[in-house]
Amino acid sequence: MDDQSFLARRLDRAAAPLAVGDVLVLLALLTVGTLSHRSAEFLANEPTYLLGVWAPFLIGWVLLAPLVGAYSAGAAETAKSSVPLVVRSWVPAAAVGFVLREFVFRGGVAPTFVAVILVTGAIALGGWRAIYFRLR
Q1: Of 37, 61, 113, 116, which shows the fewest CB atoms inside 10 Å?
Q2: CA of 30: how far to CAs of 50, 63, 69, 93, 94, in Å?
Q3: What's the mean pLDDT in 99-106?
Q4: Range of 37's domain?
Q5: DSSP helix/strand/coil, 66
Q6: pTM (2 decimals)?
């Protein structure tokens, strides 16, 4: 019988660079998206605005990505295993982000926004991981 907890089996130290990269990719994606709707001047005058944009999706990511396996041993081995795990992790994490965005943080969840975030998030996260393993 395995003495490791479920969460311990889902977290592998070798995946730490992936975790850092994933968060940076999400921050970049959400920042670029915000800049497509708000000016840099607006963001300079409202320094906490981006925190409200980032928070719901980062909370969803931190809660669900480890559970789905984004940082398991398999995720740290090859792009072939890592990319599908990050995409499968993004979908429920983004869903939590949408709920938090609608009911706790600023912003809505128009169907177009949901579609764009799901697709661009999956492409950005999967793409970054594919590049990571190619360069490794």
Answers
A1: 37
A2: 8, 18, 23, 14, 12
A3: 94
A4: 18-135
A5: helix
A6: 0.91
> Is the residue at 75 inside a domain?
yes
The total number of residues shown for the chain amounts to: 136
Which amino acid does the sequence have at 111? P
* CB under 8 A, 24+ apart: contacts of 127-135: 128/21, 128/22, 128/25, 129/18, 129/21, 129/22, 129/79, 129/82, 129/83, 129/86, 130/79, 130/83, 132/17, 132/18, 132/21, 132/79, 132/82, 133/78, 133/79, 133/82, 134/79
Tally of domains within the chain: 1
Q: How many Å apart are CA 80 and CA 129, to the nearest integer?
A: 10
The reply to whether 79 falls in a domain is yes
pLDDT grade for 106, boundaries at 50, 70 and 90: confident
Asked, for residue 62, whether it belongs to a domain, the answer is yes
pLDDT of residue 124: 98
* Amino acid identity, position 34: T
Assess if residue 46 is contained within a domain.
yes
